[in-house]
Write a structure and sequence with these properties.
By secondary structure, the protein is of the alpha+beta class. The chain is built from ten helices and 14 strands. It has helices spanning 6-32, 43-52, 60-68, 88-95, 117-129, 159-167, 183-208, 213-245, 394-419, 425-453; strands at 104-114, 134-141, 147-154, 171-181, 247-255, 262-270, 283-287, 291-300, 306-313, 318-319, 324-327, 339-347, 354-363, 369-386. A five-stranded mixed beta sheet has the order 2-3-5-1-4.
Length: 495
């Protein structure tokens, strides 16, 4: 078995010559790019491989570049049926997009909110099947909130159409789309596959010319390793090509949770435009001082009745008391899907814009609060006001005067209303004042009468005695007054 004939030795010599040329070229590439992906052989096998021109797979890039230029040389000893993966390049070329010449992987992740998850899943599958797509996987759960995740594969040319159809199934919550260009990765895998195919072919040639059992065992081990790596590369290439040939869309559908929801649309129009009614325009340009009618369209987008509407426009300083009902009614709960239209008239002023905030609570048919929670929504209205830069005139002054007069009247009325509860204080204070004046008058009269009853005092003599011309007083002495000249017969007080 290991003693070939003379013709066989001639074929082996030809193989050796070709292998030497290829090995020399691969050795040059190995000096610039050290791959080191092959396992080391024993000393005898390494010497045999060097004599025949074989090197490790470090020269893969050289062979791959030669394959791209159409200059690769195949071993004459390897026939068509023994060549592994001979049709790899032609298959890859057929999968490349012709329109742009690039290999791109399209992926998308969509999240939608639906009313009925099973019905929406069937609708999604029908929409994708109409585009030639297929369902690759499904994961559904009913724990808590019902949810279903579907994975679709569609042709890249129908990728955008599929996204549009799936987005219309329910309320689109989130959408992420990406495009990954893998052209360089595909080219690199193809180049490595060509190099490993050439290496496998050479090892098979060396195996046919092996003469010793250790040499055969070593070559078979290396051949197995290289064929394994070759199949791994082919599998990676097929995976990438499958991803390029079919775009991937992951759709997650979540069932809508019952609850109250509101939608507020705020618009406006010039009041002098009598032909226009609510709703008006989202953006409005007016001059300072123009009368603007602001419209509020409030819609119940949830699944419960709503009541106790509270509306406040902070930007225009308007609340519910300043509004007029144009359509609908506020006397009864707002039904599911129903709307109420309100309007208010304001004077345009610079640097103002509409910012309406509406809140409501869940109620029953008779308006009783169900205690299920409340909801709120906001509507914005862009109002651009051209500021009036002209000088004020007579009418402006007259208007300002009337405004000041109105303010004064308002202040007077407010003050009067504030003092009215205390009107009783005025007669009380008047009575107290009169009583106090009478009391003081009585006290003053009593003081004058007392002073008039007191005799005036007589002036004493200069020497302190009686006057010489003064006549003696014949009046009886007053016995009531004590006589200091008479002796006191009372016993002395020992105390």
């Amino acid at each position: 078995m290991f003693n070939p004939t003379s013709s066989g030795r001639g074929e082996i010599s030809i193989r050796s010559a070709v292998a030497v040329v290829l090995g020399f070229m691969m050795l040059l590439a190995a000096c610039s790019n050290d791959d080191g992906s092959d396992a080391t052989a024993s000393d005898n096998t390494r010497a045999s491989a060097e004599d025949s021109g074989e090197v490790t797979a470090g020269g893969d890039l050289v062979v791959g570049s030669e394959a791209d230029e159409g200059k690769q040389a195949e071993s004459p000893a390897v026939d068509a049926e023994n060549s592994v993966g001979a049709g790899g390049l032609s298959d890859t070329a057929a999968l490349q997009p012709i329109d742009i010449g690039r290999d791109i992987i399209f992926t998308a992740v969509i999240s939608v909110e639906v009313v009925d998850v099973p019905a929406a899943s069937q609708q999604a599958m029908t929409a994708i099947q109409g585009l030639g797509g297929i369902l690759y996987g499904q994961n559904a759960t009913t724990d808590g909130v019902p949810r279903s995740t579907l994975t679709f594969k569609v042709p890249p040319k129908d990728f955008q159409t599929a996204l549009a159809r799936l987005g219309e199934i329910g309320f689109l919550r989130d959408q992420q789309v990406s495009a990954d260009d893998v052209t360089e990765r595909v080219v690199d895998l193809q180049s490595q596959i060509i190099t490993w195919e050439a290496s496998v072919a050479r090892l098979r040639g060396f195996l046919e010319g092996a003469t010793t059992l250790p040499e055969i065992a070593e070559l078979e081990r290396q051949l197995l390793d290289r064929e394994t790596n070759l199949e791994r590369l082919r599998g990676s290439l097929r995976t990438v090509q499958d991803q390029v040939s079919l775009a991937t869309i992951t759709l997650t559908m979540t069932q809508k949770v019952p609850g109250p929801e509101l939608e507020v649309i705020e618009t406006g129009y010039l009041s002098r435009d009598g032909d226009i009614t609510c709703p008006g325009e989202d953006d409005l340009d007016v001059d300072e001082g123009d009368l603007v009618t602001v419209c509020y369209v409030i819609t119940n987008t949830g699944d419960t009745l709503l009541g106790e509407l509270f509306i406040r426009d902070e930007g225009l300083d308007i609340d519910l008391d300043d509004m007029t009902v144009v359509a609908g009614s506020l006397d009864s709960p707002l039904a599911v899907g129903a709307s109420v239209v309100l309007s208010a008239e304001v004077t345009a002023e610079p640097f103002t814009t509409g910012r309406a905030q509406v809140t409501a609570v869940t109620v029953s048919d008779d308006g009783t609060d169900l205690r299920f929670g409340s909801t709120s929504a906001r509507g914005d209205f862009n109002l651009t006001v051209e500021e009036d830069t002209s000088l004020p005139g007579f009418l402006d002054g007259l208007s300002a005067g009337f405004a000041v007069l109105l303010v004064a009247i308002e202040v007077f009325v407010v003050s009067l209303g504030f003092l009215l509860p205390f009107i009783w204080v005025i007669p009380v204070l008047w009575w107290l004042n009169r009583w106090n004046r009478r009391r003081k008058a009585k006290q003053l009269a009593a003081a004058h009468e007392h002073l008039s009853n007191i005799p005036p005092p007589s002036a004493p003599a200069p020497d302190g005695g009686a006057s010489k011309n003064e006549e003696p007083n014949d009046e009886e002495p007053n016995n009531d007054e004590p006589n200091n000249d008479e002796p006191n017969d009372e016993e002395p007080n020992d105390d």
